[in-house]
């Protein structure tokens, strides 16, 4: 089943005096979506609400027709998986395979089924040869890939990545980008909160800009990243290629070097 989230007039406050989210209305389905905005814009609070880790002050989140408030955190976990920014917040087993099998077994898979799912997920992140290793003997970027595999193995319909490219080199980013596209092609809803605009430009279908607890811009990355003056208000920069091409005097918005090369070939 495909994941669909409807966010209706969502408000949230940690304290009475300060509202963090101020009436968010969004429908999230099919398109891989990046939620961007400076620190304090409400992005992390928003995804914690989607995971059921926080409850809205008012408004509601509906997942495939069911109000999330009627589901337990464990029930939500079967459908909505989240890869934390810091893998050390997620990893606690002594071997990679045990770590990646843990989630699937918690959502009701048998040990055999969990192992198959775990090995498939490890293969997807290129870590299948390290299945017997202790995760803490691996570097930070590899632990991040293990934490991604642990969520993929649970096979949720919605996968949220919190800052997936932090601590990743070029190969790691490429691998995570391919995973995002593979999941989208499988019909899963992929969401991320992220500060890496180049990664958004290359791998996401939709960008939603949060600012001061509301939605400032929402559209495909080309539309969103062409609005330089609005992005500036949200303290966001355009992707590197976009900025470079504008600095060189091109009016058009190019998101990637491939975009620019195609344009030049067509001239």
From TrEMBL:
Listed GO CC annotations: ATP-binding cassette (ABC) transporter complex
Gene3D superfamilies assigned to the protein according to its UniProt record, in alphabetical order: P-loop containing nucleotide triphosphate hydrolases
Domain called ABC transporter: residue spans: 5-237
Membrane association type: Peripheral membrane protein
Subcellular location(s) of the protein: Cell membrane
CDD domains: ABC_cobalt_CbiO_domain1
Pfam families reported for this sequence: ABC_tran (PF00005)
Keywords for this protein: ATP-binding, Cell membrane, Membrane, Nucleotide-binding, Translocase, Transport
Domain of life: Bacteria
Molecular function GO terms recorded: ATP binding; ATP hydrolysis activity; ATPase-coupled transmembrane transporter activity
SUPFAM superfamilies: P-loop containing nucleoside triphosphate hydrolases
Entry's family note: Belongs to the ABC transporter superfamily.
Protein name: Energy-coupling factor transport system ATP-binding protein
Phylogenetic classification of the source organism: Bacteria, Bacillati, Bacillota, Clostridia, Lachnospirales
């Amino acid at each position: 089943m495909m994941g669909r989230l409807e966010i209706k007039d969502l408000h949230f406050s940690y304290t009475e005096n300060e509202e963090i989210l101020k009436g968010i209305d969004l429908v999230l389905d099919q398109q891989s979506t990046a939620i961007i905005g400076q620190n304090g814009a409400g992005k992390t609070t928003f995804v914690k609400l989607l995971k059921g880790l926080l409850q809205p002050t008012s408004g509601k989140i509906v997942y495939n027709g069911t109000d999330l408030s009627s589901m337990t955190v464990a029930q939500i976990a079967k459908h909505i998986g989240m890869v934390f920014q810091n893998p050390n917040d997620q990893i606690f087993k002594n071997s990679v395979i045990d770590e990646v099998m843990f989630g699937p077994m918690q959502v009701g898979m048998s040990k055999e089924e969990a192992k198959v799912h775990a090995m498939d997920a490890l293969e997807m992140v290129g870590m299948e040869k390290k299945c017997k290793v202790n995760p803490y003997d691996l570097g930070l970027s590899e632990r991040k890939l293990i934490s991604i595999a642990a969520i993929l193995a649970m096979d949720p319909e919605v996968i949220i990545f919190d800052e997936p490219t932090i601590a990743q080199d070029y190969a790691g980013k490429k691998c995570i980008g391919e995973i995002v596209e593979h999941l989208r092609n499988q019909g899963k809803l992929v969401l991320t909160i992220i500060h890496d605009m180049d990664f958004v430009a290359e791998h996401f279908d939709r960008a939603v800009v949060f600012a001061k607890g509301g939605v400032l811009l929402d559209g495909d990355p080309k539309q969103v990243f062409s609005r330089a003056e609005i992005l500036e208000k949200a303290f966001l920069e355009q992707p590197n290629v976009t900025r470079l091409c504008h600095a060189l005097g091109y009016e058009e918005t190019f998101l990637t070097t491939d975009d620019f090369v195609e344009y030049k070939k067509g001239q």
